[in-house]
Amino acid sequence: MDSTPSPTPSSPFDLVSSALGRYVPRGGAAAADGPAADAPGDRGTRRRVPDTPAADRQDQILGVVNLDRELRITRCNLDAPVFAGLHAETGSPFADLMPPGDVPTVTRRLRQVLEIGEAHVARIQRLRRGDGSELVVSMSILPAAAPQDGLTVSLIAMARRLHLYAAETAIGTSLDIGETAQSLADSLLAWGEVAAVDLDFAVWTGEGVTGQAQGRIRLRRAALVPDRAWPDGYVTPGDDLPSDASRLLAQAVRRGDAPQAIVIPDRDAVERVLGSPRVMRALVPGDRAAGVACIPLVLDGPPPVVLGVAEVWRRADCPFRDSELFDLQELVARTAHHVDLARQHQREHTQVLALQRRLLPRTGGRTVEIASVYQPATPDSAGVGGDWVNSFPLPDGRTALVVGDVVGHGLGAAATMGQLSMEARALLSAGLAPDEVLEHLDETVTLLDDAESGLAAGYSALGSTCCIALYDPVGHRVALSSAGHLPPVLVSPDGHAGPLAVRPHPGLGAEFALREPFDVYEFGAPPGSLLALYTDGLVEDPAVSIDEGVARLADAVSAVHPWDALQQAARHVVSALAPVRQRDDVTLLIARMIGCRKGDTATWRLPARDDAPARARSQVCALLRQWRIRDGTRDNALLLVSELVTNAVRFATGPITVRLIRSGHGLLCEVGDTGNGRPRLGRGGLLDDGGRGLRIVHRLTTRWGVRWTDTGKVIWAEVAR
After folding, report:
1. What percent of the chain has pLDDT over 70?
2. What span, in angstroms and rounded, lies between the C-alpha atoms of 105 and 227?
3. Which residues share a beta bridge with 480?
């Protein structure tokens, strides 16, 4: 074996090789662990194999192999006695050292490190000796140091206790239940030819589990190794086990209400226990003789809860020794709580995801087309974040576009997210301007963070961000306010794209010394314009600045063709920009402005004089006849406009604006004035003269309300057509 030193002293190969001198084999001096008691299980079907002390008499020994980009061995240092029998010749494929069934999985990991440059550390792996025996090692894959190219693979031949420790460490690195089960199966493979993990369906979906199963038993295969082509009918990850197989496995590991491990030593015994050809095809990996050890994943408690079953299959001529069964049970027992933690994370992840999807816009309207994409963070992140996005038509004909990002992850962020979203919708529907809505949200975040509610619960929403845009389809303008949020991207009909010039704001719940008034920005958005609102997960990339990320988003949105389906285009933008392994939620809302047709709107400005109601009735009547509105609707609209203009003349000053909008389901009448008084509908007596106009408005319309402007107010009312 070639152990020639590298010309680069600091390369991973040389660093590992230099450490080999510290590990001197002790010639089998390590004492084997004491004899293990018989593992509980089916002693009628299990063949007892006494322990051989020499089997565990080897210390951990370090070895190292260098590979080129074709995954061929360029040099190695495997001189320790424990590696005897491994044919690691220079120029030979590294895959020759592994069992054939492990080659696809390991090759994929090697190429992943080559492409990404991130180390793959401490995974349990079997190596094949020339005589057919196998050696269990802890394998780490490191990118070679510059100027060299390729990989450095370090190998630690592992003593039994170190093997258990390394396996437990690897299993607890993810909060995704599928990856946790896969890590457990990878570790179990050191004891057999095939390893599988089958979980209770309630565990897989994150639901609660109890000590006693209720109703039909259902198991789902969560993990299976090695990665290979399996025969037809065999259960692979994601598949539900046949009901008979689920029932047999559940009965096998639960005896007298105490979960127990069992061993079925050969194929004849397996056929007797399983009984059905269908169950045999589903559970037995292949036609050759095989034995299996079934170990329950048990969550300690009164009573103990069985989360699932781990199965290890091996050749019948290599029966399980008692010490091996003890090790298997110890490993599964140590890692069952990791499976339950992943279940709890999955449950919280599902709940928050359902809430966020409930807040996503459903449809657009006649005046604006909406498309939204929500892509949750990868399952092994800290949890679903507090991103939220919403769009909804306002009663006065405008459309609200809202996006926000609540600090933190999990249920605390989800609760705040839902509260802010609903509060923003209610305030906008009540006619408040975007900056006024943000002032209320700012106060809400501050109140939620006091000692009694926020901090006592271990969660703080200070620093959350929000952006609100209101689109007027008649004037083709957008009013926008932002609280610490990234600037929206506007694409004009001619294709020019860029972020809006929005002055930065410290965000919601800022300290009093940092608190600033929220600005309102108004800009034109002619028909055909695209407005993109998003959260930082879409544009943040460690490799580029945030400004460059926003510029990339602008380029991607500007490429959307006017004839493209907007939802498909939004998905394409997200797939082009979002990282594969995202640590934060990705949210995007794209609005394509359509606006009202010119012939569907009319606006008049009248002086605040006594003849204003009559002039308004005359002009509105002529327009409604031109629009061919039926007589009943026309009469109601004329009376409505007359009452609103009369109130404006009596209680306000300055010019009066009358606007009529024809929509698909009704007529929207708006009367604006310079007054700041809020009209209120009260309970008047039979002889009371005041307030009769509003009661008439209330009875004639399907809905009505007030919208505040910089110069006064607008009273709007809708009449059904």
Report:
1. 77
2. 6
3. 469, 521
